Amino acid sequence: MVKIGVSHNFTLMPHIIDQMPTVSINLEQDNLRLSDVESSSVYNNLMQVTELNVSGLSEEECTGICKSLILLTNLTKLVMTEYSLTDVQTFVTSLKHLHALTDLDLSKNQLDSATLDHIIRFLPSTLISLSLSHNMANGEFSLKHLTKLVRLNLSHNNLKLPLYSLLLNIPERLKYLDISFNKIQNVDQVGKMISDFSQLCYINMNSNQIGAVGVQTLISDMESYDAKCDIDVSHNVFGLQKIIPYIANQLPTSAILPDFERENLTLKDEHLQVFFKNIPKITTVEIPKKVEWSETDYKSVLNDLSFFSNLESLTFASLNPAIFPFLAESLKNFTYLRHLDISGSRIDNQGVKVVGNALLSLKRLEYINFSNTNIGMPDIKFLLDIHWQHISKPFINVASNVHFVQAIFPSIKDQLSGSSIKGIDFDSDELNVISFTNIVQMTQLTNVSARWKHFTDKDFEDFIQWLKYLNPELLDLSHNNIGDSGAKSLSEVMMSMHGLTHLNLSHNNIGDNGAKSLSEGMRSMRVLTHLDLSHNNIGDSGAESLSEVMRSMDGLTHLDLSHNNIGDNGLCRLSEGMMHVLTHLDLSHNKIGDSAAKSLSEMMWSMAKITNLDPSHNKMGDSSAMDLSKGMRSMDGLAHLNLSHNNIGFSGATRWGLMMMSMHRLTHLDLSHNNIGDSGAKSLSEGMRFMRRLTHLDLSHNNTQYSGTKSDGEGISSVTGFEESEAASEKEKATYKSAKSSMSYSQEEQHSKEMSYHRTEHTEQTLLPSSPQPSTSGYVPPTEKDPAKS
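^ that's the sequence the OP posted. Answer follows.
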């Protein structure tokens, strides 16, 4: 005879031992034989087990118990909870043998919809009570074959399907249905279906998402079909609960507010029914700005607000951008709405669009308040379009937005047409969007000046967006500290400014990266004539970027790069891009030294039209003066030259003395602060004999023995630092007088018309060392003080 060992195989026994007679054998002993088990009547006693309750089993224990279930043929109640059901396939195989099972609890097993559907197919038709709560069901599954089922618990799952679809799949004899703590929203068209369930008496919908609209729908449907079933709707109107304090004064005094916080709030609650019947009487909802609601609270409120079908006025301030899509969806239900106030909210471009499009469906709308919502110029334009498209042409209040318009309006209003436009009051709390009709797209606007405006980042971004609609000829953004990031934003707009001739970006803290961005934006500016980038922080790499784009700027005549950090390498690269049409070039206050002078000299040969040149306040020495003197021989039209605050010395001055013999058109010459000495001054005086048009000369601070100023109306009208003194020798006096006398009065009279032209274009002044140097860029914007400094 074969002996079979079965030690440690009866994992089921500890869970049912209390339902069995005394067992005379130790089932956990070693060397246990099958014949011993059979002789102990264990199998016969299993027939008496009717209930099995297990929880928290390991996978191995679950498999063992599931295999043993086939022995419990009289089992009526089975509870396997808390992650006990891990071997699903073995479990469903055993279910076929449980013909007496009436009560099954598989809650808290984290079973998904597919697994539950698979298990439900094998459930015995004898079931009366079934609990599948605390799982992960989110889809449909049919329970129709469980014809004797009376109780069904599907609570604490993730059900989102409409209640109608759920009811289609339950047996007709069901009495109690628990679907609480799910995410059911749609309860439409269920009244008749519920009334068809002759025995269904209670549905628990506690803590779903049906909202006030869903509750009202259920009340109406249940009344219409005289359904006797009661439905628990506790904790479904979170938004309505928050609105009640702001609408209670519009309800009849006889209406008693239901307690939405209590459990078991059913549709048969008298106060609930009266309250919902009075909701259509609410016409005004005003939510204060200082409510402390979460984003979820706002969504719940907006969802329940859509129930207020007769609403005429809605104030919903202090919303954040994420809320506006939900607001737009709710607005579609307010067919009687006349007044909408969302002032003080933070709305983005997408929010403006979704709300604006929703407003088009509100035919009775009269007033919309978008004030102080931080909207930009593209949003203003969009709302302007909404105004003209809307059937009622509502007043759209956009006050306290696009602050840059208020800042620049005084400088542009004279270019606008229409007295009503010029009379706009930007300080008013009511500013209709139609006031921006001409401001949004001013085709007649040619000059845009925004100096000293100290824009915030948001204001500057709005300003940039507005520029997209314009094609100005002059743009002045000086003294705004826009930095590299502002330069990058501006460059994107500049690409479309094909008609721009004057661009002033001085005093803006623009560095190399900003210069690179601007270079990209200026590639399409074929008619630009004046460019001012002075008082920035542009270095060698920035100059290199500018040189690349300047090769294609055939019309540039005035270039100001003074007060930057351009050194020798930068100037060398910059000289490669200099155009032959330049007439004014200012390179003062940089870091240009001797090694770059040769490149500058070579550049001068192609700048025959130059009239104003200023490389002052740099680091050029005597060798630079020699190189520059060679290049200047080709500048026949040079009238203003400023080489002050360098270090050309005696040898440089000697070279200049020879070169000056060919500079017949020079009217202004500044060589102050160059350490040229008396001998250098003497060499210069020799060259001055041929400078018949020179009117202003500054040789101060050069270690000479001459000082003072003299003007006698002939020839040189203003001389600083080169004059007769008691210490001067007779020979030196004679040399100076000889040079000065060579410029006769008749010669000055002969060129008086030309000198008058120069004096008109450039303000004449005596160039004293302590006086600020005149701009040589040729572009002098209107005098304007810094409001902050004022």
